[in-house]
Amino acid sequence: MGLFDLFKKKGGGDGKKSSPAAKWAEAAGNKRAQTYDRQEALQELAAMGTADAAEALLKRFTFTIDPSITDQDEKEIAFQGVLKAGKDAIEPVRAFAAKAESLAWPMRVCKEILSEDEVIDELCTWLSRWDTEYARFIDPKLQLLNELGDFTDERVVEAVTPFLEDVNEPARFHAVVALLNQQSDAVADSLLKMLLEEESVRIKAKVADAFIQREWVVPEDQREPVRKVLPYEYGIDGNGNFSKR
Question: What is the pTM of this model?
């Protein structure tokens, strides 16, 4: 070992300088840490307003503790600390959201930091990472479909429509609700096409009720095929209008 190596070792490994957030990151994201130590770490990180601090604070959203009031207080400290980083927090939030089991807090952060237009783009991008195949755990996908339904925008229609063919029934249901919330007649064709293949009774009823409420007319060449797949309490008259017995 040379003299340089000795100094390098004494000085701390590869010589890279850790960020101020590194000192507090472990305690802040440790469920088993003493409450005082964890809260001190959260408060120190929350005061920094940096991307590194935001990355560390986001880990606090991955677990819960008792009592629930303490859990919520700590998460609120973390939330406010992430917000303090402003748009510098977005990259850490994106990375966190890509692996998170719940997107409630990341979406809340985005809605505080970004404009509505930017939020729609962001959530549509997150949703695009999901496909329509079977998955055991789809809570983030459902959260995204539900959240996007709160916005009225053509980008939402484009992002959500593929999930009308999702293997998971809850995802299809949330996609239907999100599209119906768009208040656009343009979604009628996609919903009608879905209806012909749909097996879920609640989804069929949701679509049929929408056709009744919005007075959407079924094209003549599709009326008989649609009649055959409707729940027993629904029908289509000679003019192509849905009805409910």
Answer: 0.89
